Amino acid sequence: METAPREQQACVLLVDDNPQNLKVLYETLRDKGYQLLIANDGEKAIQLARRHQPEVILLDIMMPGMDGFEVCRTLRGDSTTALSAIIFLSALSDTEAKVKGFNMGGADYIGKPFQAQEVIARVDTQIRVIQLEREMQARNRQLESEQASILNAIFEGIYGLDLEGVITFANPAAAVITGAPQESVVGRTLQELNFSAPESEAHVERVLCRDGSPVLRRGVTMARADGGTFQAEYRAAPRFEGGELSGSVMVFRDITEELAQERALEETRELVAVQREQLAQASRLSVMGEMAAGFAHEINQPLTAITNYVSLVSRMMEKETLDQDALRQVLEKVSAQSHRASEVIRRIRQFVQKPASGKDAIDVARLLAESREFAEVDARNNAVSVTLSIPPHLPHAMGDAVQVQQVVLNLIRNALEASRMAGAQEPVEVRAEVLEKRVCIRVLDRGCGLPDDAEERLFQPFYSNKEEGMGIGLSLCRSLVNGQGGDIGFERREGGGTAFWFTLPLADPEHSEPLE
Amino acid sequence: MSNTEQTVYIVEDDEAVRDSLSLLLQSEGLPVSAYDRASRFLEDWRPDMAGCVVLDIRMPEMDGMELQEALVERGSDLPIIFVTGHGDVPLAVEAMRQGAVDFIEKPYHEEQLLEKIRTALSENAEQRQVREEKQVILDRLAELTPREREIMDRMIAGQANKVIAIELSISQRTVEIHRSRVMHKMGTHSLAQLVRMVLSVQDEA
């Protein structure tokens, strides 16, 4: 008979009070590749079974003293021998004895007198069964230990929960995080252990996933065994057994430190934003300095006119007859000119003053019109005009109006300068449109263009291709645009010149239609 | 020469400044002609324009400096008062170098501007008068015959009638006749005055 190759010789224990029977069994199974053990009474059989843990025991039922059934009961009750397959041997051929044998955990039954082939076949079958069983158990043990090691290695705490919130399982990380030993938590409820605060009741409900769907919560306060608390993030998913909700698995971790880091990061971000605004402010003042002569001119014009008109009025009043109509006309002109001067001052103030409110919905069309007015002085000095092309009903964008205007003005002034240097006749064009759910603003010129390495360096701080340039303008523009959640870039235009563009996110739809 | 023919030409792109200055000068009884662009004034310019120009130095298209250059090129003798803004001093200096009579910074006291305008007008009147007087002398000189011109040149050089007669191989009597004709045509009785008149137009004759 062919037997499967075995790593270890299988062990078979032969138990019979009759030496002749033992001899026949021994002869039958010898040389079949088994280790054979012999016992002629029940006591010895139990001793040998405990020592050698045989795969198969051929056990005679009718024996003096301890009979086969009793031996079987004893072996079954002992964990070291419970796994051995017991094949009963008896001349008894009544069904009752066979049933009794099977009921007591017997694996098989061989009737006397033995047929050698039958004995060999039945023993071999039992050995194979038992070896497969042992392999499976070993495999199971390995799998179990793997799962355990995975659960043990996981940094996150894991609880298995039943439908009532009783903890049925906890991994080592859960113990580390909560400070409660693994064995002490099983059988207790989540409510008493980690969600003891009254306001935590809702979390228990969520974690149990009674509606059958998973949850994720962050920044939740959980209690520790020592009475302290920690900030947690947890995920929970329902468990099903046979289609029925049987509880849930909760995975949680301590994010106290993470939250502290996030706060630190947020504070750093705010600091950067403040510094950006300070730089923007400094840059606005510097731009204002550069434009001061132009603004002085802008204010001097109405002041000169007012001086002239006032002189005229004094002369009119010295005359014998006062022409009241003419006087009124002149005074109206004085008033108009003083408004004109204050309008210039308003624009300067608006540009220089620190914005009180941060991001808001911006009427881009209006902002661009104001920026153009603002750049008028420069336009005149550079002998280049500025045109706007803005589609009707342009939706509002989201951003800080003063900073956006600063970017627009910077780009327009650069374009004017480039145009003048190239002696360009074409005006600088400012366009706005909606592109991919963003407002895109372009400033186009036919100016002197950009050097070849501009792509890499143009938006870097302290890079400038202007002799008197500080190299702050465009790097600041990028910082400001990024601060609004937009992008900035440029293209070389076919036929000469440059197109700078930047984008801004759209404002909420409620702001999109300008109010009538 | 009377000032009534003189006009103050204002060239200023800012409407309010132009309007207020025009009204102010008119209230002073000055004839005013105002232009919003340098190019328009240049189109209107004629050599016989009398008065002065009040010119804004900063203007779109053709600016004040360019207009000044164009006027100098055409031989204009209109005095120019530049009106400059704050910080335009270098431009003003350059303008003065080009022959502007004066400049004034905005905003200005009207008395200062009026003073500068009056000065410019009287300078212009003087210049015009000198030029007209020269023209009279030149016209008279043109009436002399070649022989009379020759004898006059010798008179001015201080030659006595007798010397002139000998050197030209004519009678002293003939010299005397020519001499009285020269004096008559030049409208003078005095040799000293004749000398002054001829010397004053020497460059242009």
TrEMBL record, chain A:
GO CC terms of this entry: plasma membrane
GO annotation terms (biological process): regulation of DNA-templated transcription
Domain called Response regulatory: residue spans: 11-127
Record-annotated PAS domain positions: 143-208
Keyword Phosphoprotein applies: yes
Ranges where the Histidine kinase domain occurs: 294-508
CDD domains on file: HisKA (cd00082), PAS (cd00130), REC_PA4781-like (cd19920)
Catalytic activity field: ATP + protein L-histidine = ADP + protein N-phospho-L-histidine
InterPro entries with a match to the protein in the record: CheY-like_superfamily, HATPase_C_sf, HATPase_dom, His_kinase_dom, HisK_dim/P_dom, HisK_dim/P_sf, PAS, PAS-like_dom_sf
Keywords: Kinase, Phosphoprotein, Transferase
PROSITE patterns: HIS_KIN, PAS, RESPONSE_REGULATORY
Residue numbers bearing the 4-aspartylphosphate modification: 60
Classification via Pfam families: HATPase_c, HisKA, PAS, Response_reg
Any GO molecular function: phosphorelay sensor kinase activity
EC code(s) of this entry: 2.7.13.3
Protein name: histidine kinase
Organism: Halospina denitrificans
Automatic annotation (TrEMBL), chain B:
Biological source species: Halospina denitrificans
Cell wall biogenesis/degradation among keywords: no
Signal peptide residue numbers: none
GO BP term (any one): phosphorelay signal transduction system
SUPFAM superfamilies with a match to the protein in the record: C-terminal effector domain of the bipartite response regulators, CheY-like
Domain annotation Response regulatory: ranges: 7-121
Classification via Gene3D superfamilies: 3.40.50.2300, Winged helix-like DNA-binding domain superfamily/Winged helix DNA-binding domain
UniProt-recorded name of the protein: LuxR family two component transcriptional regulator
Keywords: DNA-binding, Phosphoprotein, Transcription, Transcription regulation, Two-component regulatory system
Highest taxon, organism lineage: Bacteria
Modified residues (4-aspartylphosphate): 56
Record bears the keyword Plastid: no
Alphabetical list of PROSITE patterns matching this protein: HTH_LUXR_1 (PS00622), HTH_LUXR_2 (PS50043), RESPONSE_REGULATORY (PS50110)
Pfam families: GerE, Response_reg
NCBIfam families cross-referenced by the UniProt entry: PRK09390.1
Molecular function per GO: DNA binding
HTH luxR-type domain residues: 137-202
TM helices/strands, residue ranges: none
UniProt xrefs under CDD domains: LuxR_C_like, REC_FixJ
